[in-house]
Amino acid sequence: MALDLDAEQLDRYSRHIIMDDVGPEGQAALLDSSVLVVGAGGLGAPVLQYLAAAGVGHIGIADDDVVELSNLQRQVIHGNDDVGRPKVDSAEEFIAALNPDVDVDTYETRVTQDNAESLIEGYDVIVDASDNFPTRFLLNDACMLADKPLSHGAVYKFEGQATTLTGGPCYRCLFPEAPPEGTIPNCAEAGVLGVLPGTIGAIQATEVIKLILDEGDTLEGRLLAYDAGGMSFDFVPIAPNPECPVCGDQPHIDSVTEGEYAGACTLGD
Amino acid sequence: MNVELRFFANFREAVGQKEIGWEVDGDATVGSVLRDVEAEYPEVDIFNEDGEVREFLSIMKNGRDITYMDGPETRLESDDTVSVFPPVAGG
């Protein structure tokens, strides 16, 4: 496979290639991989930066927002001149400027019950860099049902969470249902330390790259809880829940097109 | 005896600190301590109208989810740590 790398790629990725744990084969695997990043905001920015720099050959970006001035405090792939433009467009331009090896597909849409399955279908790994519970639970369920690895990251003020879900336990094993709307404030309501999603997003990118390389130990079965204020990292074990509605012994979610994800995001029995 | 309570995200704000020591009786359970916390801090909301832990919260004793022990009836021993862990959504 090493012969597939041209002279420019051997140079660009030389710090990967000289490592035994990556090598030319690992780099070729990265170039041959595809990752869908849902959300091109605070978390998505560093995820996209590092996946593109690492040479993930095919990156999909799903986001239906436009860049706002208040985003620029943390969403480092968008610039002043991008305010008002679709985030998927400025994200695509950022990647094109960084690494021409990366093919980008953009989806200027929210992930919905109707499009979730088809969006994730063509990708090896999915990254949840979204900003709301309905999308998070929808992605968890869709990825579990389609047997796609999912990198989860979320931020709140000075605190961040990250985990990697590869078929069970899943996010619902720890949190069976989303909180009712208004219970847990989002970034716009609560605020977020600008650099915090940089840390969590970089961890998500790390996990994705490890999954592609099949190297190291991921956050599978444990949730990382990072407190930027106390500069502490805690790990919460995620045990498989036999009563989990998606990956338990008798799951009752067998399709994301049914059930209720909007609003309170609880599923009717 | 004394146990340690740890709070994350918005629960941290509701009690005003990350960790607090809590004096409990020898027969204390996770549920009894958290009910005391609810009584002490009006903004802390852990139990629903039926007296069950709200579905979206993860409550842990010594880092393990109480779902896989005896739930809120899980007994406490001196120096145990109880964590209240909500999901967060921001991105």
Q: Give the strand content of chain B.
A: 15-25%
What's the β-strand tally of chain A? 8
Number of domains of chain B: 1
User: What fold name goes in the CATH topology slot of chain A?
Assistant: Rossmann fold
InterPro entries (chain A): ThiF/MoeB/HesA, ThiF_NAD_FAD-bd, Ubiquitin-activating_enz
Domain THIF-type NAD/FAD binding fold (chain A): 13-246
GO molecular function (chain A): ATP binding; nucleotidyltransferase activity; sulfotransferase activity; thiosulfate-cyanide sulfurtransferase activity; ubiquitin-like modifier activating enzyme activity
Keywords (chain A): ATP-binding, Nucleotide-binding, Nucleotidyltransferase, Transferase
How would you summarize this macromolecular structure in one to three sentences?
Chain A has 269 residues and is α/β, with parallel strands linked by helices.
Please provide a written account of the structure.
Chain A: GO terms for molecular function: ATP binding; nucleotidyltransferase activity; sulfotransferase activity; thiosulfate-cyanide sulfurtransferase activity; ubiquitin-like modifier activating enzyme activity. Chain A: Pfam families: ThiF. Chain A: Residues 13-246 form the THIF-type NAD/FAD binding fold domain. The complex is a heterodimer of chains A (269) and B (91). Chain A is an alpha/beta fold. Chain A has a single domain, classed as Rossmann fold. Chain A has helices at 7-12, 14-17, 23-31, 44-54, 87-98, 116-121, 133-146, 171-174, 187-190, 196-213; strands at 34-38, 58-62, 103-107, 125-128, 150-156, 159-165, 222-227, 232-237. Chain A is globular. Helix content of chain B is 20%, strand content 24%. The mean pLDDT of chain B is 95. Chain B has 91 residues and is α+β, with helices and mostly antiparallel strands. Chain B has helices spanning 9-15, 30-40, and strands at residues 2-7, 19-23, 58-61, 64-65, 81-85. In chain B, strands 2-1-5-3-4 form a five-stranded mixed β-sheet. Chain B is built from two helices and five strands. Chain B is globular, with a radius of gyration of 12 Å. Chain B has a single domain (2-85), classed as Beta-grasp domain (Ubiquitin-like (UB roll)), CATH 3.10.20.
